[in-house]
Design a protein that fits this description.
By secondary structure, this protein is an alpha+beta fold. A four-stranded antiparallel sheet has the order 1-2-8-5, with no helix packed on it. A four-stranded antiparallel sheet has the order 6-7-3-10, with no helix packed on it. The longest helix has 19 residues.
Length: 137
């Protein structure tokens, strides 16, 4: 029951934000991506610029809670994932509303995905998606 009330409140908040602002102005998190090549490596950098008084849930410790940041980069051509570099300064707290421990960020951060080319000189591609949930502090 508690979760239904929270989701209803989030839905009402989203509707009121949408009706108050233009879409470009309402987004509290701006996401940019860049791809660079270094020898046999391809680096995908996904940067998050978080507005003041907002936070993004990075990961949840335990079950339940808000939607954590997830990346789905499994559709690769001529690449294999070598490593993921996460931000070093994530905040940790126990959330009383969701009743879980969680990691989050409230400042600008970047995630870097390092891929190795399987066949040098051949075309590569990365197709993926990500999902996150943000909250006004």
């Amino acid at each position: 029951m508690k979760m239904k009330k929270i989701l209803s409140l989030l839905f009402v908040s989203i509707i009121s934000i949408t009706s108050s602002y233009a879409v470009e102005e309402m987004l509290p998190v701006e996401v940019k991506q860049t791809i660079t090549e270094k020898g046999d490596s391809v680096i995908l950098k996904i940067s998050f610029a978080v507005s003041d008084n907002w936070m993004v849930y990075d990961s949840i410790i335990g079950e339940g809670g808000p939607i954590p940041l997830t990346f789905d980069l499994n559709t690769l051509t001529n690449l294999s994932l070598a490593k993921i570099l996460k931000p070093k300064h994530l905040h940790k707290k126990h959330d009383d509303i969701f009743e879980v421990d969680m990691l989050y960020f409230k400042e600008d951060v970047a995630y870097e995905f390092v891929f190795l080319k399987e066949k040098k000189g051949e075309v590569y591609s990365i197709l993926g998606s990500f999902e996150f949930m943000c909250c006004n502090l």
